[in-house]
Amino acid sequence: MPELPEIETIVRDLSPKIRGLTIESFKLLFPPLLKNEDLCLLHKIRGKRIIDLSRMGKMILVNCQDDLSLLFHLKMTGRLILCSRTAPLDKHTHFLLRFKSQKSELRFRDIRKFGFLRCLRTSEAYLIKELRLLGPEPLEIDSSSFDKLFRGRKARIKGLLLDQRFIAGIGNIYADEILFRALIHPSTSVSQLDSRQRKRLWKATRVVLNKAIKSRGTSIQSYADSQGRRGSFQNFLLVYGREGLSCRVCGERIKRFRLSGRSTFFCPCCQEFKKHKDHEDKRGRQNKKCL
DNA sequence: GCCACTGTTAGCAT
DNA sequence: CATGCTAACAGTGG
Asked: Which of A54, A63, A65, A169 could serve as a FRET partner for A249 with CA atoms 20 to 30 Å apart?
């Protein structure tokens, strides 16, 4: 569940709360959570101070003293929770961090166990496969660099938006919302997109992700922040999860199909596959009127 | 009980 | 290489 806006929310909340704290101890309750051979490095984090937290795509990087970092990926059901040390541990808590002279601790919970933890040398972060292969940040890339990403590509646009090597942080919900706002059908091959559509896509990406961050993310089934609070962007979704309901823009029934194995929602009128030209023309006329 | 579904992505096949 | 399916897991709802 957690995509860029949810991870960003967690990082912004958590960072001021645990920055500066010293790690006293940890417990790895489900050892397979830790990927690769990071265990001996993990032991070294005891006694280190937390410098800051950052987000890279959908991952959370906890930067500690002495060139050590923890990298978390929440995948679908992972959660980072800041709670009291005395709160009962449930069976889905796989890792926890205790801090010196603090009553609170940080817990990693993950029902489906897809998530992972890595411990690495901060200076070697770029060597870590999960980070090295990560595409550009959608809120940082400028319009012309975004444009260049499409060169020589011909996959369907939604598949590319979901590909973390192409662009980082976008998942199923936001891919659908972005494509709706950009008036682009999810199955469109990117080789078919003209520069105006690519510009619209870039803009829609920024608008959707920024709005979602303002709403503190989308809580549909299980997403909650580090204090267990839900986001509110589910109240503003225009297509995701709205199969059969009427489009909030044109009233047409929202359709659903499977694309790249993922549930995909779109408005057959606003995002009509073969009628991009119509939208262009309408928009063009509107722009002319404005001028 | 069984089956279909779920917001991710690595790994494999094409 | 680029692209597309599926499995990994556990829970929920029909």
From this structure: A169
Question: What residues contact A46, with CB distance under 8 A and at least 6 apart?
Answer: A23, A24, A25, A26
d(C-alpha A160, C-alpha A178), whole Å: 13
From residues 132-151 of A, which are strand B contacts by CB within 7 A?
133
The answer to whether residue A275 scores a pLDDT higher than 70 is: no
What is the token pair recorded at A59? 């991952």
Q: Using a 7 Å cut-off to protein CB atoms, list the covered nucleotides of chain C.
A: 2-11
What's the rounded Cα separation, in Å, for the pair A286 and A203?
A: 18
A55, A58, A181, A200: the catalytic one is: A58
Quote the tokens at residue A281: 């023309």
Strands A104-110 and A93-99: antiparallel
pTM of the entire predicted model: 0.92
